[in-house]
Amino acid sequence: MSGTVPAPGAPRARHRVPRQLRARVGPRVGRAAGVLVVAGVGASIGWALAPTATAEVGPLTVRVGVSLLGDHPAAIDLPPIGEVAFDSHRGPVGVQASVQSVDVVAAEDLLGSSTALTDLAATAPDVVRGGVLRALGWAVGCTLLGAGLATAVVFRSPRRGLQGVSSALAPLIVCGAVAGLTFDPAALDEPRFTGLLSRAPYLAGEGRSVVDRLESYRAGVADMVRSVTTLYTAAGELPVIDDAEVTTVLHVSDIHLNPQGYDLAQQLVEQFGVDVVVDTGDVTTWGTPAESTTLGRISRLGVPYVFVRGNHDSVVTANAVAAQGATVLEGEAVTIEGLTFAGIGDARFSPDSGAGDAESKRAAAGGSAEELAEVIGATNRSGDDVDVALIHDPSRLDALFGEVPLVLAGHYHARTVRLDGSGTRVMLQGSTGGAGFSAGALERIEAGAPLPLEASLLYFGTSGEDAGRLLAWDDVTVGGLGLSSVQLDRTLVRPDEEPVPAEQPADEEPEQSPAEPSGTVPPPTTGSSSTSS
Question: Is pLDDT of 337 > 60?
Answer without folding.
Answer: yes
